Amino acid sequence: MKTMKIRDRLIGDDQPVFIIAEIGINHNGDIELAKKLIDIAKEAGCDAVKFQKRTVDIVYTKEELEKPRESPFGTTNGDLKRALEFGERQYSEIDKYCKEKDIIWFASPWDEKSVDFLEKFNVPTYKIASASLTDDDLLKHVKATKKPIILSTGMSTIEQIDHAVKIIGTENLAIMHCTSTYPSKLEELNLRVIKFLKQRYNVPIGYSGHEVGINPSVISVVEGARIIERHITIDRSMWGSDHAASLEPTGLQKMVRDIRSIQIILGDGKKIVYDSEIPIIKKLRRKG
Q1: Under a CB-based contact definition with an 8 Å cutoff, are residues 142 and 110 in contact?
Q2: Among 11, 189, 253, 278, fewest CB within 10 Å belongs to which?
Q3: What is the total count of domains within the chain?
Q4: Nearest-angstrom CA–CA distance, 203 and 108
């Protein structure tokens, strides 16, 4: 299987699982809340935090932005979308803060202009959101940066994934199994797809989970996931579309702990007699 490298981290079968805390838009437009979420991710032992970047007037039509939608920021969908979008000042603070905290940050760009914006900060990788998997122009624009790519596959057919991979190529690529509902039903997680994707594409496969709880994300590692991504929040009851499908600090800490334990528990697959077993052999074995 091919490996992938994000900055100094190699991602592959014999490497520690790369854990991403998805902040996304759960900062609710507040840079101080974003910093608190970065702290939570760092304290839990995550490897990276991820945001979402959109050029609002490109990603959404005028009609969509003018639709009525009540929120703390106004009465239209446009009021909400613009309020949740960080600009250069906020991302400069994020860049500085993550460097101080020694944690990787990057984002999912939803349009070409957002890719160019993120290039100013020399982000180490790009995440293609499930909603963008069929956007050939965006895929080509991201590929042109020559940065590693993480491709999420929610709400996508195998034919659509094949097409996206053909555009991107398999060098420095990871593919994320995902179900794009918030929160996802357990019967629709289908974690056995992870092994199927690994066999089909021969690249590191990850899992981007939107379920309630941590068990499916932990189990996905046993199924072969080498990257785990989960949305995080301070409080799942907060206002916002993604908070209900996110992990609070305690849940994130438990998930990271259990994932790290799994790799120790699984071992290297070589059957040996441990030194700790020798006294038991002498005590219990009659022969041999």
Answers
A1: no
A2: 278
A3: 1
A4: 20
What CATH number is associated with residue 258? 3.20.20.70
Using a cut of 0.90, tell me whether the model's pTM lies above it.
yes
Task: Give CA–CA dist 166/188, Å, rounded.
Answer: 27
pLDDT in tens, 15-67: 999 999 999 999 999 999 999 999 999 999 999 999 999 999 999 999 999 99
How far apart CA 52 and CA 127 sit, in angstroms, is 9
Cis ω before 204 (30° cut-off from 0): no
